[in-house]
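Bench notes, afternoon.
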Amino acid sequence: MFDTVLVANRGEIAVRVIRTLRSLGVRSVAVYSDADADARHVREADTAVRIGPAPAAESYLSVPRLLAAAARGGAQAVHPGYGFLAENAAFARACEEAGLVFIGPPAAAIALMGDKIRAKETVSAAGVPVVPGGRDPELAAAARELGAPVLLKPSAGGGGKGMRLVRDLGALDDEIAAARREARASFGDDTLLVERWIDRPRHIEIQVLADGHGNVVHLGERECSLQRRHQKVVEEAPSVLLDEATRAAMGAAAVQAARSCGYVGAGTVEFIVPGGDPSSYYFMEMNTRLQVEHPVTELITGVDLVEWQLRVAAGERLSFGQDDVTLTGHAVEARICAEDPARGFLPTGGTVLLLEEPAGDGVRTDSGLSAGSEVGSLYDPMLSKVIAYGPDRATALRKLRRALAETVTLGVQTNAGFLRRLLAHPAVVAGELDTGLVERVVDDLVSTDVPDEVYEAAAAVRLEALRPAAGQGDGGWTDPFSVPSGWRLGGTARPVGFHLRVQDPVEYAPRGTHTVTADRVSVVLDGVRHTFRRAADWIGRDGDAWQVRDHDLVAASLNRTAHAGADSLTAPMPGTVTVVKVAVGDEVTAGQSLLVVEAMKMEHVISAPHAGTVAELDVKPGATVAMDQVLAVITPAEEDQ
């Protein structure tokens, strides 16, 4: 076993790997850019090496800097986690050339399976069924031959980045261009492939583990069908869809796929499965790394996958065979992401003001967060994962819903409350899943309405802040004008009101009773008690959170006056302006694309709300913008006014 391992990653996966290194008595070396200098993975490692200035995400992609950090930290091996360079064959080769052990498969296997086109050809030759499709450079022709709907996918990476479902081939060229931009931004390679889209498919993957002595086993399957924008949001193991015969057949196909590329280490073979016929499964791709959802497999098998990555990389043989693998109980994982369900799941950011993460009693949280963490727009939006285990699926789902209700992340909007409601949806509870389910039911699970008790709690906090401090006054007398009771000389008391804003501004006067402490506010409204956690202008409960700001009537009036007769286009999320297609004075048409804002590798196009003239343009390519920041102002054409 190694004495010291460099963890070439950040966030929750770096913390996860460090945890196993510590349990094995192996010294850990973290890496960080200046933006991450006080990050949790830096504090939990035995030592840490700076690899770049803030806010360069590219620091974590710099092979020379990472190799230099390994040398400075005295590491014999490098664990890449997932994302960044985890599936980069050049990085694996560079580690080997530097005398370091890359804790992952051989570079040749990464290169083969990282190219989805070659991967499909290789496993097909080995007898594994694959989805019909085509590839560059005949991508458009292949798509038209397959017929709509088709799925565009980057050849060089996964995670939903750059994937586009095309149901209208008239929009094919635009969709290909957008997919190429996202693929290039995410993976540095814009090569695409196209596959026939299977309606209402299930996404099921098989975990494999191989040593360097020819032994390969699978550790059962994971159901990953609950997805948004082709990105997994909930995963579970085992799948309710598979019977023992299908599980064994898919497992054998996954093992064969791993053998076909000379695989070593932990990897995942992903299949698309028609929900009505689980015996008709198709190979999609192989992820040559640890998966985000690996904890559910660990919980039902008792196998620490990171430990076995280390042991295999150190030359050990697997100590168990296929017949020794048993699946016990059920585990479900939910991904906590920095995104706002009420704003179409756009990425968010901010400072974590209050953090509580559940653990114990069959619940595990893998997280890279700590109070005070800055969540920016440079990295993937996933912040943490909450995983629940139980003797059966119903118990695991109940535990996970409860754990999500106990998850508190104030200061950064997350999807925790949405996930809790998703896990209670009748189709999810019944196990009737497919990759389009979330999109079909999302409107039932997301509400843009702000409950009255939220405003009541926010107003209660402000009302309490106005009260005189204990002991204030002279000789026990308190000036009635200093008490926020609405008292007036010679008149009846009027309720104290506040101008508040979550989305639209409201004027709200508290009408119930309340109790306010440093981190909680409890209100009784219409006979019902509601308790929230609080920090600054944030309040939250049951996984949901609201930032209730004070609404400045004067500033709002001045803004309306300054832009009278025009529409301001604002940033829908914190991020970076990557494309500006217009200039001040340009005439634009309704729906015309004007700018592109990117955050967390996601593009959002800002379009003209109507025909008109660009009156103001406050940004240029490369500019960093805050959520709701004004980007441009469009004066309507005369006929639209």
